[in-house]
Structure of TetR/AcrR family transcriptional regulator:
Amino acid sequence: MAELKERIMDSALELFERHGYHGVSVNQIVHHCNASKGGFYHYFHSKDELLYVIHDTFITYVLDKANQAKEKYDTPTEQLQAIVHSFVRVFDLYKSHISVFYQESTYLKPDYEEQIKKKRDQFKQNIFEVVQEGQEQGEFRAELPPKIAGMAILGMVNWTYKWYRKNGEKSIDDISTIFVDIILHFLLTNEAMEKDAYQQYLLKHMVSDTWA
């Protein structure tokens, strides 16, 4: 039955991208994926809830990955590089979900919108906290305001939605590696930059040892 839920979501994503949220009915969705209305309402109380689940899927993914990174890694630098990698990859894994989010987010019901906002704020706070912890431990430059540095990271990565193409010159992993390099170069202190443990996250090391 879980396969049916995925089919319904995939059809909804395709139809919402093509016709817009209000241009698609439940009947069209179930017809597109060869399901029944009963099957639809088994998983979703309404089309509004379906739109919420589409939004929630990728936001929950990046939030879970950020929480896992903070638990798995000991240092802020390691935590941040893992968070950025998973954040960038979401634009490949959930490209259609994100496209629908940007197109149709204004149609979310207030209670659903509040739940999405809560998770987005939690993810944002994770980044702010990691940056601040990096400064307190002497790994990140103390002169950078943590919230502005965090918003710069969020803004840069979020813009990937506008230009990333699956068949582009660089793979999503290549792009995430480039972003990590850019972010660490503006955050790391000179002393932290020289640490052998962090050299593996920098592009020069990757090019010479892996991509050559």
Summary: Residues 207-212 have pLDDT under 50 and may be disordered.
